[in-house]
Amino acid sequence: MTLEYHTGGLICRIDVGRGLLEQAGGLFGLDRKVLVVTDDGVPAAYSQKVLAQCREGYLLVVPQGEENKSLDTVGTILAGLLEHGFTRSDAVVAVGGGVVGDMAGFAASIYQRGIEYYNVPTTLLSQVDSSVGGKTAVNFGGVKNIVGAFHHPSAVLIDPDTLDSLSPRLLSEGLAEVIKMAATGDRALFESIEGASDLRPHMEQIIASALRYKIGVVEQDPKEQGLRAVLNFGHTVGHAIEAASAAAGGREFYHGEAVAVGMLYMSEGEARRRIEALLRRFALPCSDPFGTDVLMSYAVHDKKRRGGSIKLVRVSEIGTYDFVQADADTLRAYIQSFKEQ
Ligand SMILES: NC(=O)c1ccc[n+]([C@@H]2O[C@H](COP(=O)([O-])OP(=O)(O)OC[C@H]3O[C@@H](n4cnc5c(N)ncnc54)[C@H](O)[C@@H]3O)[C@@H](O)[C@H]2O)c1
Ligand SMILES: [Zn+2]
Fold first, then answer.
1. CA–CA separation, 142 and 139 (whole Å)
2. What is the pLDDT of residues 266-286, one digit of tens each?
3. Which of 170, 171, 173 to mutate to test ligand 1, by most ligand atoms within 8 A of the CB atom?
């Protein structure tokens, strides 16, 4: 199925379908010079399939992992473009998760002040989250996503078959973001996940519904001035859990796992019970070991950058939400009240 989203006069096309990887050449117009960027954790078969459909294709494999999402790696991509004499009419295709997509997209945004970039996200998280919105970035100076640009992909191809090779943990992490979108704005999607004993046959539909929802939000608020904050449901406390877990020396909580717990802090009543039931089903965590003061120290650090108060998203009924403009005391009270239950 094909989805479209409109942004600043551009139309970005997203095709979702099993086996679509075979059609990348036609869908992206790869009858030209193409740099296919992937990382060494993505099964090579996916990038090879795309490469085979390019008239003049070059493959660049970068090292996997968030720690390699850096200006150095972007430099490697730029060097590849330069070495092969890429010009404005040529293209970059990212094949991989959000790390590859963010770096290839950023490199494409600055090479010759911007060349075309196409995205083939291969993790559930990147399929439902990074394929819409045009954000590209790398980490710098120890700060995540601090250097980047808005550069929309010319087209996105999502082949749910690529999820077959993903670990159950990474699949669940992506599902946490799907549950986030369903809980705040798509009750039918939430119920279809609740009702399906096996998600695999429904994956195409689930991805498309999540994307439709995200497209609706991003189209109404392209530069993150208001409504888009709804996509942060679970993320204020989630980011604090993620940061506390990273500071403790490990990656005990993946991003989606931290967001899963974060959603429980920000929901109540029947909505909380239903979200928690889904999280348990997908082996996502429902609690964290960090104290209120620790979480507050990370969350307030986050809040200060935005000047004073923070817009929280609360869900008390599945499919809808409230914004709460909260100061530190209100946030502390929400955290405390969850911990006391
Ligand atoms: N641009 C945006 O709007 C946006 C939105 C959300 C997240 N992000 C960024 O995305 C990144 C996280 O993305 P991610 O979760 O996809 O992480 P990732 O790209 O690091 O992928 C996770 C791991 O899975 C491997 N992998 C990828 N596809 C696979 C497949 N099909 N089968 C088996 N293994 C596979 C990768 O090699 C990697 O080791 C973060 O850097 C985050 O900042 C960006
Ligand atoms: Zn997220």
1. 7
2. 999 999 999 999 999 999 999
3. 170
